[in-house]
Amino acid sequence: MLSWFVFHFFTLVYFHSEATLTINVQNINRQTGQIRVALYAPCDGFPSNCQPVAGQVIDPTGNSVRVTFAVKPGDYAVALYQDLNRNGKLDTKLFGIPSEPYGFSNNFRPKLSGPNFDDCRVRIDEAGKTISIKLI
Asked: Which domains does the chain have, with CATH numbers?
């Protein structure tokens, strides 16, 4: 009986475990607006044609902030921006170039087009992970 209980307990813990993804957002130069962070599971068309699996909105309180997500182990990507005017969208200039600070996991810096999921992929295991993203 005890062995049955122990087996099922560890099975539940293993298959339903969550990990913690901690994101340190750095290089916040203005203390206005909101930092909007979106977490994505693997998808085609990242980030604009995908729905985030989780998101958070926080007010900047210094030159860095910390955001934490509880996630199932797996692959994810993060896209974030500082919504300076609090209008709920990333404002852009000519040719779609962002006019507000933004960043991606792996500190990927787009050159001529936006990133794809693989550019920003972060693997989270049961131990969790901490990453840093600098706004540009």
From this structure: 18-134 (2.60.40.1120)
